[in-house]
Design goal:
Distance between the termini: 34 Å
Number of domains: 1
Oligomer: single chain
Helix content: under 10%
């Protein structure tokens, strides 16, 4: 058996090593543990799906003081005991988890910081990729990211609160397709004793196109607005990214070009894509308007082990929360050896 696969998921709980010193050049910094998927919100608390099928998240560092000396602690992985087959994160950093049967459950604001409780949405589907919607910030008590304690909403007897979400986009399994799901979160006070029932209602999924291989969200810089971007082939068969700017309207972002040849895109996240086993950042805007250059190569972004990039994850800054603007996140990566990386200066991760 491959020695890598013999390491249990519990190794993710180990703290980060301080061995990488003296390098100022940016590149991939390997994080402890093994995982098959990664997702992150603007709060920069990534989730991974470890090799045993459990979700873990990377807790922020804290300030530890002894007398007048204070140092930042290292970040640790936290085991959640949540099993999943697919994971995603919304802008606020709440987990969206799909189980082996295709059931979608999501996290949300809580009066307890780092509460990983999930609520089943009622949606069950075969989902190959997911671009989560975002709670509309109508209630200041709930306008907090994951990891920060939110406020409590006081409900009267039989009072109902309806909280809207922006659209969620999914791609299906088998035959590629793109669908949208418009969700509403309902919170109802049912009893005088203040027992609260929480549930979802939605109008989807509604299929809107076919041929899409992946969907992600691209954030409009300086705002909370997100535009769905999809991966689908051009007429010549080369897979590229497209901005889905309106119903039946797709703006092609031509794939990166190396030595005059178009390079197929294999994975996309907010602002970034993978092509030729390398990471590229879009030089234009979220609506597909091209910049000059169109794509910018991220230096030293090929996997250091000679493996293949499987997934990347990034989330732009989110303004307007009850604690102000959060983010942006760091850029993260999973490779074909199930190694986990963060892109940045090669040194200890804080």
């Amino acid at each position: 058996m491959n020695k890598i696969k013999q390491i249990s998921a519990g190794v993710l709980a180990a703290s980060f090593f301080l061995a990488r010193l003296g390098h100022a050049m940016p590149g991939w910094v390997q994080l402890p543990g093994l995982a098959t998927q990664i997702a992150v919100g603007a709060n920069d608390i990534p989730y991974v799906l470890d090799i045993n099928g459990y979700v873990q998240y990377l807790a922020p560092s804290t300030l530890s003081c002894s007398g007048s000396l204070c140092v930042q602690t290292e970040r640790d992985w936290v085991f959640t005991n949540i099993r999943a087959s697919h994971i995603a994160s919304d802008q606020y950093g709440y987990l969206w988890s799909i189980d082996s049967g295709g059931a979608l459950s999501i996290g949300g604001p809580s009066t307890h910081a780092f509460d990983t409780s999930l609520l089943f949405t009622g949606l069950t589907a075969c989902i190959s990729s997911l671009a989560p919607g975002r709670r509309e910030p109508d209630l200041p008590e709930w306008n907090y990211p994951f990891g920060v304690a939110a406020g409590a909403v006081q409900l009267g007897y039989k009072e109902i609160i309806i909280e809207l979400f922006t659209d969620t986009y999914i791609t299906g399994c088998g035959s590629p397709s793109l669908s949208t799901v418009t969700e509403f979160a309902f919170f109802e006070d049912m009893l005088a004793a203040n027992a609260v029932r929480r549930y979802f209602s939605f109008n989807g999924p509604q299929k809107i196109d076919t041929g899409e291989l992946q969907v992600t969200n691209f954030t409009v810089d300086g705002s909370a607005t997100q535009i769905p971007w999809i991966l689908a082939p051009l007429s010549n068969g080369v897979v590229t990214a497209w901005a889905h700017t309106a119903p039946n309207t797709y703006v092609a972002a031509p794939p990166p070009t190396v030595s005059g040849l178009q390079i197929p895109i294999t994975y996309a996240t907010d602002h970034y894509v993978v092509a030729a086993n390398h990471v590229w950042v879009w030089g234009g805007d979220a609506y597909g308007k091209r910049g000059n250059p169109v794509w910018v190569s991220v230096p030293n972004s090929s996997p250091p082990t000679g493996s293949t990039i499987v997934q990347i994850a990034y989330s732009a800054a989110l303004p307007g929360t009850s604690i102000g603007t959060i983010g942006p996140s760091n850029l993260y990566m999973i490779d074909s050896n199930d190694y986990i990386y963060q892109w940045g200066d090669v040194g200890p991760v804080k």
